[in-house]
Each structure stands twice: as C-alpha cells, then as structure tokens.
Write a structure and sequence with these properties.
It contains one helix and no strands. With about 50 residues, it is an all-alpha fold. The N and C termini lie far apart (about 30 Å).
Length: about 50
C-alpha cells in the first residue's frame, strides 16, 4: 500500500503578526512544534516544498 501524504499549512493569526504579542508560552509551543518537524524531516516522514 502506498504511503499517505497530507498537506499542512501553518498560518499565524493576525494577532501574532506583531512580535510584541508573543509570550514565553507561545514561543515554547512553537519550539516544540518545530523540534517535532525537524525530527520528522530527518526520519524521512516530512517533505518540505522547494523554495523558488
């Protein structure tokens, strides 16, 4: 059976477009998220689009 693929798009809500609105709590959440993505990328479970 072929591996399933999903498209995931992360978009900030307008509130977080201002750096002053980020708290330590939000920064910790985002850091955990990107650490997980880095692990998935190194394991070959994540495909990132090429930059143009």
């Amino acid at each position: 059976m072929a591996k399933q693929q999903y498209i995931y798009v992360l978009k900030l809500i307008p509130y977080f477009m201002d750096d002053n609105n980020w708290t330590i709590k939000e920064e910790e959440i985002i850091n955990r998220h990107f650490t997980r993505l880095q692990c998935m990328l190194s394991d070959g479970r994540l495909i990132l689009p090429e930059e143009h």
